[in-house]
Amino acid sequence: MIEARVVDEAMRWEPVCLDLVDVKRFRIDEVQGPAGVLFDPPQLTRFDGLMQVDLCAERFGSLRPSSRQEVFEGSEWVFEAVEGTWSVLEPWSV
Q1: CA 46/CA 50 separation, integer angstroms
Q2: Which percentage of the chain shows pLDDT scores above 70?
Q3: Mapping DSSP to helix (H, G, I), strand (E, B) and coil, where does residue 73 land?
């Protein structure tokens, strides 16, 4: 689970859950500025039988990447797994 800011809703924090099966590789870069800000929902792609979950998909705009290498070279937060899902969880009540 990660905490991400939802930009279009006054930058509130929202818990986001990634449920990945058989992770093959991942990349999480240190970034300057706010980390964990989701401008768009995670982008799911499939190349070579594996699913890529890209948390920085806004860099592609409306275009989709053309290969799994492009996903990894251009992303700051990406996971590659056999299967997986993501969901926004309900905020915890205190």
Answers
A1: 5
A2: 62
A3: helix
Q: Hey, what are 19's tokens?
A: 């449920």
Q: Read out DSSP for 1-66?
A: -EEEEETTTTTEEEEEEEEEEEEEEEEE---SS-SSEESSPPEEEEETTEEEEETTGGGGTTPPPS
pLDDT tens-digit readout, 27-76: 888 766 555 566 667 788 899 999 998 877 666 555 778 888 888 887 88
Global confidence as pTM: 0.70
Amino acid letter, residue 82 = V
